[in-house]
Amino acid sequence: MSATRRLRTLLGDFTGRTVGPDDPDYDAGRAVWNAMADRRPALIAHCGSAAEVAAAVRAGRAAGVPISVRGGGHQVAGLAVRDDALVIDLSGLRGGSVDPARRVAHVGGGSLLGDVDALTQKYGFMVPAGVISHTGLGGLALGGEWAGRAATSV
The pTM is what? Predict the structure, then answer.
């Protein structure tokens, strides 16, 4: 059984959307900022909740395939997408909220820097975390090119 079929079987009650090699939007779903990173995952799981992320991780582990996580897909080496892997796409977890009294923002794992800017600027706040608005905050904070600088501010 192919990895795509194993994953789809294991994700039987998954409420998010899955995209495999035979789906029309597969190429768009696997594309990352660096077009030289042309990888072909077994399946892309578009998650919109923490429960969907957990279900996708469980399915990937049970299927024995590599798992990669895509926040913004902006990392220069294209590490968000791996060949024959399950890609957990967090683009459905964008947005968040700001507590202006505490000067704290809470954002979803798929939020882009532009999303964070839009949330915080309403209160006159800014987050010194990068300059490219379509960079994923999660990847930047956890290991992107500027992580050493950005993580001290995020």
Answer: 0.85
